[in-house]
Amino acid sequence: MSHDASHPLPVPDRHDPGAAVRAGLAAPSAPAVPVPVRWGITLPLAGVPLREHQPIVTGLAAAGYTDVWTAEGGGLDAFTPLAVAAAWAPQLRLASAIVPVHTRGPAVIAQTAATLADLTSGGLVLGIGSSVAAHVTDINGIEFTEPFKRTRDVLRFLTRVFDGEVVSGAFDTFAIRGFALRDAPRIRPKVILGALRPRMLRLGFAEGDGVVTNMLFARDVPTVLGAVGPQPAGKELVVKVFVCPVEDPVLARRLTRPFLAWILNQEPYHAFHEWLGNGDLLAASYQRYLAGDAAGAERELPDEVVDGLFVHGTPEECRRRIAEYVQPGVTAIQLYLQAPRLGTFGGPRSRALAGAPGALAGASDALAAPGAAGISVADEALALLHTLRS
């Protein structure tokens, strides 16, 4: 019986207890011993140039963090910050969430991941995903076609490559002619999917090493877990939590609402919240967005949504809110930190506002920290991260 490269035959591996589960030949079982939750931070921190992150990255382990994560959209790429982090602190686990599957060829993704994996003793988690049309088509000029199939095909390709295979054949969305890594990474990268709804969530657990999800209320985590069912040992469920440690709720909402009004109205996230049962909360904002009224979409986004999806308050209040996401089945927390107080090294506190939205004009007094002028941004960042984690 013949088969193509996009539908490999299931072959159980007695050396890999999870292989039979991935192949659909055995029922998954929960790990006997709970795995400690890993903690990671997304690089670079907003407002701090990447070149000035070395003292932050080297202090992460002492602050209780095990991972450094990146994202890729309209800012920096997903791989370069991980490479410099590996040079500064090779014991940290490197992770991406996510690398878009349309904007690089499959072999380039594999080669770049293998290079990164060779730089670290902490391992690599390669998070890939479909991204959104705004990041694929609007800024890269690449057609955003068949996102689920493309993600599935790249996952299958990477899995086989990292298993040491020479890959040839036709997948549904591309064809490969004889690719293999010349040198296998000393620590095999994990491949996880950026996943929101059941089909992608199940694919990440069935054929990959798990998933990373984001932009959800803490109350929604059980729904995501329910969609994937019991997890076999070694699989990842990473939750990305957005944090703005600003005590003034009016200022915090002013900082975070524009981003939320944009991302929640992108089709994948709109469909995600419809599935989660949050559609009514977002309906008015979505209608304004469809009408081309970005300002109206912001105005119609309820405070309940802003407060629930972008954690804000004092560092202690943020810590308590973040802890609500640490639920059974979650293996890692990825923090995205938007902290206006963290400005450019060596500059006055008001320089933290240099890259902030115009709505922050005149807000420097609210963001200033009395007596903090002599504290470096690295020290302040690490103290904040320690508070959020502890």
TrEMBL record:
The keyword rRNA processing does not apply. InterPro entries: F420-G6PD/mer, F420_Rv3093c, Luciferase-like_dom, Luciferase-like_sf. Gene3D superfamilies: Luciferase-like domain. Residues 46-331 form the Luciferase-like domain. It comes from the Bacteria. GO terms for molecular function: oxidoreductase activity, acting on paired donors, with incorporation or reduction of molecular oxygen. Pfam families: Bac_luciferase. Keywords: Oxidoreductase. This is Probable F420-dependent oxidoreductase, Rv3093c family. The lineage of its organism: Bacteria, Bacillati, Actinomycetota, Actinomycetes, Frankiales.
